[in-house]
From TrEMBL:
Residues 144-164, 306-337, 514-536 are annotated as: Disordered. Pfam families: DUF11. Keywords: Signal. The lineage of its organism: Bacteria, Bacillati, Actinomycetota, Actinomycetes, Streptosporangiales. Residues 610-725 form the DUF11 domain. Transmembrane segments: none annotated. GO terms for molecular function: metallopeptidase activity. This is DUF11 domain-containing protein. InterPro entries: DUF11_rpt, Ig-like_fold, MetalloPept_cat_dom_sf, OmcB-like_DUF11. GO terms for biological process: carbohydrate metabolic process.
Length: 981
């Protein structure tokens, strides 16, 4: 055993430690840790050197002193290895006042027969120990090797008794955590703070700080090489990035020292650009903002653009990453602009490659062809830092969608879903979290085969996540994990799987064999009867974790209905190890689902049997009024219909007005309808007011509706459409708003006159225009009112024929009534359709007058001459008069004499000069006037001047009152020719 200098080493370390000790005051402490990452034989160590003959290769372990303290030796590395990468961590707490801390390392070969053998790890002659001093402020070191050199090789001068066979030892120093990795992400603190040097030179091989690593926040580095266009797209990469960014702050059991949520994904796909991106960046958060960003279709998860709720863009703008323009004026164009790159922009540090060559056609999972490519294209200096993957079509006959383990993965689906799943395997997750049960309902994780399409969300879209899935997209809240056990023959529908998760869904096969998503916070329909409530209590029996009826996913096939299914907490279980071996041995050859299988699952999980009915009210409907359609959509399941659209086809003669649902030009968007539920909404349309008028009568209009689930198929589309027909009639409130008659005040008996009538009509609709007709009483002919429009009143004119057939006052009453001209049209308010008009006419008795009896012509010399005249008593028909007249009954003092117009109007000024009449048998009118007819007439005298007779007056008349039968008093009127001289 070569331990000659051990006592001297301890003494020197103690002296150095005492020299730097704090003066007298008590101080806090600070950790310092060394992680030995590699030990390698430089000189021969197989049956020679460190090992004697027949002892095979070395069995390494290390002794470490920190600040003079001999720490317990490290575990022993696997036997008989010339190279090990053990990641042994040794740490100690030192006073926080210390600025320099010495560390010494010895490398030994375990030998129980001849004693342990010391290897030479020091480049100094006559020294086998690696001695360094750590600067506690920076974590860098000086001594046998100086930072950034992190590997030491012994000088190997075996001629000197003090030097042993050479070994190489590589290490990293942390002054932040006793584990050497403060944030627990598998990347040593010194690497993240200063970069990683993979060999004994002084060159940083992986510049982690420039790549964005943070020693106080978990980082996950992935390199993904690809073939052609077979690779994840931007939105799926964005979803993967969002899933890790929202990880619990203590994912893997170690909290982020910065106190923030998440693991930062650093994905190296080289300078791979996507022309559909924009140089100014794509909109963020559009699939969870509650807004229809395009303004024409569904919102958030209801929009098929939003497959990934965190990574997708709703109604994305057109890309500009291939237009040869610097659109955001940052001096970088198209693929040279970081915003156009699908993954991270590592610039010159990028190593992601587009692969070419025949070897790419032979990859199937993690087979030899995979490792041939890995060994050629993957920078070995990255092996402890990056998980390495290849995105490529599987070789002919390959039935794997992907495979991942031990720092490697193959992605044959070319999607972010598979990327996330395979990285999960590299983080230590199995298909059931802690086991290989691939379709457990109480395990809501993308590692589950059933969740390979993504974890479905209520109201549409998916997220990528491990268990428990986040409820808030930013990870500030999550569901519960592990979920309670499910015993397949003791199921209880009254027990909700996760009452606190109101957004995510889990998937199971019910007792009828249907596999479908269900709300985690709802009572599960284990029985599949679709008739809940009531909910069936235990025991309900169902084979929850098997395939669907078509046999997908095949690896989930089983017949047991008595299994106890256990949930798992992925985020607490994940492991972010320091080392990824990269070999092909002992790999899990169980294939992950292919993209075709995933698409079949996605289709299944969105298969919903929709049906629709359509009714109308009112029927018939009046033109110019609103017509309301009621649409009822039902989902018979088995899956929720996460984005239901109803396209309502209105008749061309109606105009959309409103809806109780959200409707755009492309349809009415109802959101989600759960299985076995329905949704009812209305659409109100306005019927054109002139529809019936244009049609020439009532018209039947037909509306239709067609429903679809934008996220998935309908197994029976025969009931996805419905129609209804409505009779449109004309309905208008017609009215007579005015009716007047302009009648003369008097007529002679036997005389007729046309009395002017004026009728005002109007319509207040709603139908307009409408043909109407006005009906009159009193023998007046009907008046047609064509196309009477709403709000456009109209005045009509006609006449009524009036005749005086007897003396005295005659009162005439007329009515005017409007009505629709067509029997099909309707006036809903007839109370304002009719008006009346009334007038009274004085029927005056025509009489025979003889001025200056016996004289012809009747010459008058005004103004002083008195004019005698006789009002003659006549028989009916005499002098063509219609009535017999007794002139002796005249009331002389009522009689006025004058020109015709004045006399007829009752305005004549001539009065009987004697204030009485003279009854006598006067000469009758004739030529010559010499005949007396033997009856008594009334002779009266008037002054010519006061009667208003003037030159040119050719006719003079009298008008007065006469007492008739029954003592009734009537007016009489008569005229005779005059000559004024």
């Amino acid at each position: 055993m070569r331990l000659r200098h051990l006592a001297a080493l301890v003494a020197s370390l103690l002296i150095l430690a005492l020299m730097q000790a704090a003066p007298v005051q008590a101080a806090g402490t600070k950790p310092v840790a060394i992680t030995i990452t590699k030990v390698k034989c430089v000189d021969d160590c197989r049956n020679d050197g460190l090992e004697s003959d027949a002892e095979s290769a070395a069995d390494f372990f290390a002794e470490v002193w920190i600040d003079g303290v001999d720490l317990p030796r490290t575990p022993r590395a696997p036997d008989d290895q010339e190279l090990v990468e053990p990641f042994w961590v040794k740490s100690a707490d030192v006073p926080d006042t210390r600025t320099q801390v010495p560390i010494s390392v010895q490398i030994w070969d375990w030998d129980t027969t001849s004693g342990h053998d010391n290897g030479d790890a020091s480049p100094r002659n006559n020294d086998n120990n690696l001695d360094i001093t750590v600067d506690m402020a920076t974590g860098r070191w000086t001594g046998d090797v100086n930072w950034p050199q992190s590997c030491s090789i012994g000088d190997g001068n075996q001629d000197d008794d003090e030097d042993e066979p050479r070994v190489e030892v590589c290490f990293d120093i942390s002054t932040e955590a006793a584990t050497g990795d403060a944030d627990g992400d598998g990347l040593l603190d010194g690497w993240e703070r200063h970069g990683y040097n993979d060999n004994a030179d002084s060159v940083i091989d992986v510049d982690l700080p420039k790549m964005g690593a943070d020693p106080r926040h978990k980082d996950l580095f992935v390199e993904l090489d690809y073939v052609g266009d077979h690779h994840p797209d931007r939105e799926s990469v964005a979803e993967v990035r969002a899933a890790y960014a929202a990880a619990p702050k203590d994912a893997g059991g170690v909290p982020n020292p910065d106190g923030k949520l998440g693991i930062t994904l650093h994905l190296d796909m080289g300078p791979l650009a996507d022309r559909d991106l924009r140089e100014s960046g794509m909109p963020q958060g559009t699939c969870s903002d509650g807004v229809d960003n395009g303004g024409a279709d569904a919102i958030d998860g209801g929009d098929p653009d939003c497959y990934y709720l965190s990574g997708s863009v709703e109604d994305p703008p057109a890309g500009d990453c291939d237009d040869n323009s610097d659109n955001d004026t940052d001096g970088k164009t198209d693929a040279n602009d970081p915003d156009c790159v699908i993954a991270d922009d590592f610039g010159a540090l990028a190593r992601g490659n587009e692969l070419i060559g025949d070897g790419t056609t032979k990859v199937c999972g993690l087979n030899d062809a995979f490792f041939d490519i890995r060994n050629t294209f993957f920078d070995s200096a990255r092996r402890h830092i990056f998980i390495y993957g290849i995105s490529v079509d599987g070789s002919p006959g390959c039935t794997k969608g992907g495979q991942g383990r031990d720092g490697n993965f193959a992605d044959h689906n070319g999607t972010g879903r598979t990327l996330f799943h395979e990285v999960g395997h590299n983080l230590g997750l199995q298909h059931g979290g802690h086991d290989e049960n691939r379709c457990k309902p109480n395990y809501v994780s993308l590692m589950s085969y059933d969740h390979n399409p993504g974890i479905p969300r209520q109201d549409g879209g998916v997220i990528l996540d491990y268990s428990p899935p986040r409820t808030a997209l930013d990870g500030t809240s999550r569901g519960r994990a592990p979920l309670d056990d499910l015993v397949e023959n003791q199921l209880d529908e009254n027990k909700v799987v996760d009452p606190g998760d109101n957004v995510n869904r889990f998937i199971f096969v019910d007792a009828t064999g249907n596999k479908a998503p269900h709300d985690l916070n709802a009572n599960p329909d284990w029985s599949g009867d679709g008739n809940d409530p009531p909910y069936e209590p235990a025991p309900v029996t169902a084979n929850l974790d098997t395939t669907d009826m078509s046999g997908d996913p095949a690896k989930c096939a089983n017949t047991s209905t008595t299994d106890t299914l256990k949930g798992s907490d992925d985020w607490r279980r994940i492991k972010m190890p320091y080392t990824h071996p990269g070999g092909a041995s002992d790999l899990d050859n169980d294939p992950d689902p292919t993209e075709a299988e995933i698409q079949r699952l996605w289709k299944l999980f969105n298969t919903a049997g929709l049906s629709v009915t359509l009714t109308d009210t009112p029927d018939p409907v009046a033109a110019g009024t609103d017509l309301t359609y009621t649409i009822k959509v039902r989902n018979a399941g088995p899956a929720p219909a996460t984005s239901v659209r109803a396209v309502v086809s209105l008749p061309p003669d109606v105009q959309y007005k409103s809806s109780s649902a959200r409707c755009t030009d492309s349809g009415c968007y109802l959101g989600e309808i759960a299985a076995h539920e329905d949704r009812t909404f209305t659409v109100t349309a306005h019927v054109a007011e002139d529809l019936v008028h244009r049609n020439g009568g009532p018209k039947t209009v037909t509306a239709g509706v067609e429903v679809s689930n934008l996220w998935g198929p309908d197994p029976d589309q025969s009931d996805n459409k419905a129609t209804t027909s409505t009779k449109v009639v004309a309905v208008a409130d017609l009215a007579v708003t005015g009716f007047t008659a302009t009648a003369p005040g008097q007529l002679l008996v036997g005389q007729s006159a046309d009395v002017p009538l004026k009728v005002s009509v109007a319509s207040t609709g709603p139908s307009s225009p409408m043909h109407a007709v006005v009906n009159f009483t009193g023998g007046v002919a009907d008046l047609a009112v064509p196309a009477l429009a709403k709000g456009a009143p109209r005045d009509l004119s006609t006449t009524a024929r009036v005749t005086c057939d007897k003396p005295g006052y005659k009162t005439v009453g007329l009515s005017a009534e409007i009505a629709p001209a067509s029997a099909d049209d309707v006036d809903p308010e007839p109370g304002n359709n009719k008006r009346t008009a009334e007038f009274t006419i004085d029927c005056v008795i025509p009489v025979a007058l003889n001025i200056k009896p016996g004289s012809d012509p009747n010459s008058i010399n005004p103004p002083n001459a008195n004019v005698p005249l006789a009002v003659l008593t006549t028989r009916a028909g005499e002098y063509d008069l219609p009535l017999a007249f007794d002139a002796t009954a005249i009331q002389p003092l009522t009689v006025r004499f004058g020109p015709r117009a004045a006399a007829w109007a009752g305005q004549a000024t001539g009065l009987e000069v004697h204030e009485r009449g003279h009854v006598e048998d006067s000469l009758e009118r004739g030529n010559p006037e010499r005949v007396r007819d033997g009856d008594s007439d009334m002779v009266l005298h008037f002054g010519s001047g006061e009667s208003g007779l003037v030159a040119g007056t050719t006719e003079a008349c009298v008008k007065g009152s006469v007492t008739g039968e029954g003592s009734n008093v009537y007016r009489f009127f008569g005229c005779d020719a005059t000559r004024i001289v």
